[in-house]
Amino acid sequence: MTTDSKGPTLTHRIARTLHQRPWLKVLLLLALPVIWLVGVYGGSLGALLVQSFYALDSFSGAIGEGLTLDSWRQLFTDANVAVMVRTVGMAAAVTVASVIIAFPLAYYMARYAHKRVKALLVLAVLVPLWSSYLVRVYSWKLILAADGIINWFVERLGLGRALQFLLETPFIGGPSLSISLLGQFLVFVYIWLPYMILPIHASLERVPGSLLEASADLGAQPPVTFRKVTWPMAIPGVAAGSIFTFSLTLGDYIIPTIIGDSSPFIGLAIYSYQGVAGNLPLAAAFSFIPIAVMAVYLTAARRFGAFEAL
Amino acid sequence: MRSRKLILLITAFALLATACTSSGGEEGSELPTEVGEGEGNVVIVSWAGYIERGDTDAAFDWVTQFEEETGCMVENKVAGTSDEMVALMTGSDEYDLVTASGDSSLRLIAGGSVQEVNIDLIESWDTVDPRLQDAEWHTVDGAHYGVPYSSGFNVLGYNTEVFGDTPPDSWSVVFEETTLPDGESNAGRVQAYDGPIYIADAALYLSATQPDLGIEDPYQLNTEQYEAALNLLRQQRELVGRYWHDAFIQIDDFTNEGVAASSTWPFQTNVLQAGGAPIDKVVPVEGATGWADTTMMSSNAPNPNCAYMWMEWSLNPKLQGDLAAWFGTVPAVPEACEGNELLGPDGCANNGSESFDEILFWKTPTDDCNGTAEAGACVPYHEWVTDYLAVIGGR
Prior knowledge:
The complex is a heterodimer.
Chain A: H1 10-20, H2 22-51, E1 54-56, E2 63-67, H3 70-75, H4 78-111, H5 115-130, H6 133-144, H7 149-156, H8 160-167, H9 181-192, H10 194-205, H11 209-217, H12 222-251, H13 255-258, H14 266-276, H15 280-303
Antiparallel strand pairs in A: 1-2
Helix pairs in contact in A: 2-15, 4-9, 4-10, 4-12, 10-12, 11-12, 12-15, 14-15
Chain B: H1 7-16, E1 41-46, H2 64-70, E2 73-78, H3 82-89, E3 97-101, H4 105-110, E4 114-115, H5 130-133, E5 139-140, E6 143-144, E7 147-153, E8 155-159, H6 160-163, H7 172-175, E9 190-193, H8 199-209, H9 223-237, E10 240-244, H10 247-256, E11 261-264, H11 266-274, E12 279-282, E13 288-298, H12 304-313, H13 317-327, E14 330-331, H14 347-350, E15 359-361, H15 381-392
Parallel strand pairs in B: 1-2, 1-3, 9-10, 9-11, 13-15
Antiparallel strand pairs in B: 3-13, 4-13, 5-6, 7-13, 7-14, 8-11, 8-12
């Protein structure tokens, strides 16, 4: 069959073309993400920034053509600053609490748990993420309610007064757990905890057992090994997890409407300014606060190597 | 405004609802003199649950029969807030009708988004509650910009076990710290509405308790009156455990959080009573605020004939009664209160129809006091929003 000279197949030709033109390869690879990032992400952010300089006509509530700095001035009133402080404070508290709870669990999963137990634990951490976020928040409202199950248990255990005392604490307390900052904090930690456990677990998995043995051989006590070997190697995981818990809390506007004393968070404030007041310029300006906070946070997290553990 | 409608429900409806355009609308400021042949469809922007065709509950269907009789297929676009309605209607030629609340209707008229309606073409107009026929949220200079659809009141709901033989008769139980009949303070046991329009509720209470302020219309407040209302609300913040905006969360709070008293809608108290909860409601001596919705017609309605047919249809007693039963509202047509199976014999009274004269219906606060003064005399709505948010935040 010598006469039947086969030309190169289509696949071959494509491969050759791509090989000869590296720029085409890069273009094809990056076209979609670039369009997405620049067009959709960048575009909407740019539109937001422009919106924040528009003027609001106080008579009709219509957005005017003129450009003004009014919205940015209104942004830093006492009330709005309080909203920002409350939100950032909550995000920080939730992050710290998540680390404290997640670390021992992740450590156990990575170091001690048997294969099957580990699989079970990973499953247990992930299962809540399979059900609707809203359903879980609503169930917590019932759990924490004045007539809810926690109160019932506490009463049975004869600790009613202790809880009462806790709820009388100014600032974090309230009429019941579900109407207090404390309850809100609990629900935030519950909802975002898995996002802390998984990256810490991943980073601890990467600590080779031989390193710990070497540390022990060199005479280091367990606390020293932890401080000098395990913890430094876990920091990227902790930082990565904290990006999740911090930013997710920062942007959440559902939990504060259902749990807590209705004090506004950044997301809620933006929602009110835009959805209720039709004050798009102020809402747009407000949107830059979480962006700015996250920019600072990510810069700091990068220092700790968080991006290597994502 | 009423972000109160279940967010989920809205999302689901919004996904289903598709806005579709049909052939060109008729321009012109002349009022139509007759309703011609139907165009085959009509597109209505409405609150969730306002245009029911039996999808949610087969018993509640007031669309199918209309479609069969007129051949106008109804398309429904659900809006979640008054501002969304304004945004949808402004400059659009896609929608025929909108069920606008009192806090957006005047804005729609001022913006030229809705057109005058020739009420001579609405045969059932005379059956509309006379108190609604010329209401100022849809009538400007004697011209009617729509047909009343439904209204509801913000009543005072209270726990009958807490109040026992002495039911509250004043809003003071939610504004002033006091010892309730069960011997405990009301602090932490009352709620308030989580919307800026609630400032009007405070102003209404002040108009009775501090006549020196001279508050005549709680929706038109000068700076001094407005500050007094804000101060009252700041005082209330100390008493309020949680502000409510979602009817179902409030129902839960009445059952599980021991809420003793709160502003609420008949909808919640009806649901609670049906479930056997010890909750009742009252229109206090100071009166109450309320909201009234009007079916308004777009200036560029693509299907004006079907739109007129729907406006006429929207007043039929069966629809009005079913809607009132579905939503816990008061029908715009009093006749609807009788003989409606879903509403029951006392339905209208339960929803507060007898208190109609004590209700001050929502209007958008404007800086010219709704056209009665020069610009700047009254505090405009967007400031209400900012300040109420600050009050809830404890400032």
